[in-house]
Design brief:
Shape: globular
Radius of gyration: 16 Å
Largest sheet: 4 strands, antiparallel
Distance between the termini: 18 Å
Number of helices: 4
Order of helices and strands: EHEEHEHHEEEE
Length: about 160
Amino acid sequence: MASNEADLFVDSLIGAPLKDDRALMEYPFFSIQKQPRMEPLVYDDGKIQITIEPGPKGLATIWDKDILLYVVSLINERIERGMTVDHTVRFAAHDLLRVTGRGTGKRSYDLLLDALHRLRSTNIMTTIEIRRRTRPARVWLDRDMARSRAENIDRP
């Protein structure tokens, strides 16, 4: 594998209906702050409870969500082509940066690494039912994403 590709272990995304997931649009799963948010996000309307705890670099942001959408589009493309979907999604970081409208300089790669770190370290606890079962906790990307080769990306 080329050193400018990233490997993501995305077991929690495979089969997840993220494309049309109303909960992702309806509830505050991502920070909208540009600066790292280090305080938990708590939502409780009496019916649904959501607690989102930050990792060392803060909560996943709305801009980090672009990475999830990109990965979901790669998974969806494989499904539509009738291909098998592995638990590891491999993609070129440069392609993700281009498709999401980001720059491709050194700073953009550094920001991508920070975003990947926030996605894997943000912890979500919720009472929202997913496929008729309550999921007490989840993370956006599996913590084993430490296997990601993103830290070895060649930067300009």
